[in-house]
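Dock nickel (II) ion; give full complex structure.
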Amino acid sequence: MISQNFLEVTIVQIPSARAADSVAIVGIRGMKLSVTRALFGAALVSGVLLVAAPASAYQAGDMILRVGAAGVLPDSDSEDLATAGFAGGQLEAQDAVSLGITFTYMVTDQLGVGVLASWPFEHDVDGAAAIQGVGTLAETKHLPPTVTLQYHFDTASPVHPFVGLGVNYTYFFDEKTFGPLAGLNLDLKNSWGVAAELGLDYELSDNWLVSGQVWYADIDTEARVAGVDTYDVDIDPWVVMFGVGRKF
Ligand code: NI
């Protein structure tokens, strides 16, 4: 992009004995610069150096891969566990950290498709409310792949903020039970839900960037204990990731 908001520069011919001096900047007006291709070329030919344009926004076809530490921070609550003999008790999933990988493919200069992938997260599921003191009742692993449609703002700078909206699928596996639930089979139903995202990439160079992303995912599962009792558990976590990335 040649046209940027800088200074208005006017370049005119000034008669001169030496060809090299024949182009000079005679006017700098206001804070708005419109540099046409012709003027830009003339400036280069005459050896006049213009202020370098900042890193441009992402462009259609760009691919951005980011790797970093990801945390799943549930804001969970569950149905009352009365039928399991824990009146007033609830299940509460605890925080977990893992390796996150995100990928963006820019379909246009502004619209991208984003994917969140990760190494599995492993959560403790503790007793809560009336059974707060009971400790860890269960443990589960999950993979929460998330696909969003992202809108990237053009800031004409190395800072690339974006927002996204999409869908999360959470696959639970390797459930285990402890304490009062020990020996009972626990199965968590996989979940489909809406996910929203905020992200910020900061370009360190043309290809390398640092990045922070936050998602809110509606993850509602059903915990089935001993194959009979089922309890709705809303996990609804914030997912945060900080990492480094590369633009291809
Ligand atoms: Ni929910």
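Observed: Residues 218, 220, 234, 236 surround nickel (II) ion (CB under 6 Å).
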